[in-house]
Amino acid sequence: MTRQLHLNAFLMQNGHHEAAWRHPDTDPKRATTLQHYVELARTAERGKLDSLFLADGVALWGNVRYNSHNLFEPLTLLSALAGATEHIGLIATASTTYNEPYHLARKFASLDHLSGGRAGWNIVTSAGKDEALNFNRDARPAHELRYERATEFIEVVKKLWDSWEDDAAVIDKASGVYADTDLIHPIDHVGEHFQVRGPLNVPRPVQGHPLLVQAGSSETGKEYAARYAEAVFTAQQTFEEGKAFYDDVKARLGRHGRTPDEIKILPGISPILGRTEAEAREREAELNALITPEYGVRQLSNLLDHDLAGYPLDGPLPDVGTFTEGQQSRFDLVTGLARRENLTIRQLIERLAGGRGHRVFAGTPVQVADQLEHWFTAGAADGFNIMPPTLPGGLTDFVDLVVPELQRRGLFRTEYSASTLRGHYGLARPATRVKEHAA
Amino acid sequence: MTRQLHLNAFLMQNGHHEAAWRHPDTDPKRATTLQHYVELARTAERGKLDSLFLADGVALWGNVRYNSHNLFEPLTLLSALAGATEHIGLIATASTTYNEPYHLARKFASLDHLSGGRAGWNIVTSAGKDEALNFNRDARPAHELRYERATEFIEVVKKLWDSWEDDAAVIDKASGVYADTDLIHPIDHVGEHFQVRGPLNVPRPVQGHPLLVQAGSSETGKEYAARYAEAVFTAQQTFEEGKAFYDDVKARLGRHGRTPDEIKILPGISPILGRTEAEAREREAELNALITPEYGVRQLSNLLDHDLAGYPLDGPLPDVGTFTEGQQSRFDLVTGLARRENLTIRQLIERLAGGRGHRVFAGTPVQVADQLEHWFTAGAADGFNIMPPTLPGGLTDFVDLVVPELQRRGLFRTEYSASTLRGHYGLARPATRVKEHAA
Asked: I want to staple B242 with a disulfide (CB 3.0 to 4.6 A). Which of A206, A426, B236, B384 is the partner?
């Protein structure tokens, strides 16, 4: 079988275009119900997609005056979707900066057990300024400190997942032995940030470890991904940038004792579909016309950590200095895009409105499939993070129009061949590392 | 309509009797699947019960060598059950000692939204010794300190739930206004334990506030319940003790500006059912015969914070001193029971095996209904926390045999008349308190 690509559906309430909720195709009140998400999950599963993904933050995002927000907390929502689906992977975002490893190890193990091995964790370090203020702090911890904590955090979580060996649950009614406690070990972790005795109060997850996903694109972020991540979500505007990122991350794996196929790199793409190219572009223009400029300026100001409210919309992006805090890679991407293409603030807002820095591509299903195939076969992607501009319509169109085209080309599965999220991504189940601790 | 009682199904993997998993009626492997819990939830809903409840701790409980443990984390499991049910309330345990208020406010709001107003929170302060060791501590915080933190914790959570006023979500496509930000307020909480700016990143829960449940029976615990709880789970061995507890808690409400009907008191009962009383007793003996004494001794030692491993099983309970740490009320209950009835260690273990200190009653459906009616009409209960000895059988029997008897007597609903958990318990939806903060 030829190498096949992997597809993740990145769900967001009304879609990824910031004006999606205002478009006639969306129903933003229905989008606040569980039923909306059940429908999306089933559509993605009908398309045989590898996984669903939910972003998250622990503060109110952006300006809710002008845009919808994620209503549901990802772990609770994905648990509800676990019962409504059978195959598709379920990836939830959770922060290592504002959580404790015992809780997250437990919750992801729980999601993995109740979904039969379909849980994934998108590890974030919470770059937002506002998040710190909800967790007993006056400011976010510095970038390097966040990653230091994230490193110890994931080590603790993996030890907890391994604290029950695979065969620990014996469940023998006759002898009265429920679990072989010789195979259950405290982890006795004592580190810089955490002191955790363990063991976890849940047997080893179905997948051994739920799938680990990461999206950091800074130097530290890429190094973290190369060490721990098994799938990487990334925002890349051009093929060249995408290829450079892909080669960079894959090249880093060796020094962590990993092979290039142990990590799947999935650039984001927001496909705006039409029967003709003209129809697709018309649809894009329709969405852009619904943008509230005040909202766009505020989002851009947050992204660049620089207040743009006083500048003319149709003038150039002023000097925003150099990166200070937040997401370095997104800062570079946005300022690079503005300079390279000489965009006005309004044009820049429009370019970002579709995917917050992720690539937006308007075209026919065949043109979209061409793009995916090109990046995939020319070494810039192992698959894609699909970010429909509107929901549910944009996902239904992708599943009904683009997926069959990819299947015809032999690039994508026509049936699920595995039962776990790791299985869909072609990744091995980690062996238990517990014996070292037990020695 | 006459006053009606409230029934909660307290779910546990194989049932509440500690030897349940060894009984021929249970299937302990199936009990580790989501489908087991879906079936239990649907059975309880068929019986028109008010709610389901899941206990929890953040360390491995008891000795898993001899007994099953809760596999799933309550919030993730109840989210999965939300999609599988339509009416029944969903009450999850979560600790105020090892969590942050922003996370719990968010997760319970999320469960409330996705279940259409059926979320409840059983507030615990984590008395266990082992839990502290999983959260960067060498020992559990002292009882009073835990309750101090719990008090500030619940105040922060309520402010966060109220940080969006009820009408904040406008969702007007034409004007482009998604939310009226004049109705969304930071909470700017700065206290002894927490500094939280807010607002929450979720609109106000369907119920205003998810139902607040508590089970503390110490002096501080009862005072906390009287101030905040809307339902109270409690372990009471005799009618007299139950009545004294009921009167005590109800009498405390006035000084918190609350009326007695604002709190529902639900003593636990594990009903062991038989077609005849003899059959019920035989079933109880059958379960007790499956107890592993080593397990019972260990559980009892933990409960009393006193190592009983060296004492003869058929001798009396030795002097265990006075209460030191852990659960004062459970210590008093257990030592009181042993002294009052002159029980040997083995007999005490058998008495506790059915419900860990909760009342066990073996009898016919009519006898069980008589007991419930007596406690209910004579002022010792507003309803009951039903703890089936085995699952699913014990719950199915209760629903099929006892519920119809209660319905015939006019003591229990024959159909749901409300759509929220608060509605089932006859409790009002709290008005938003946000205006005070906004002034």
From this structure: B236
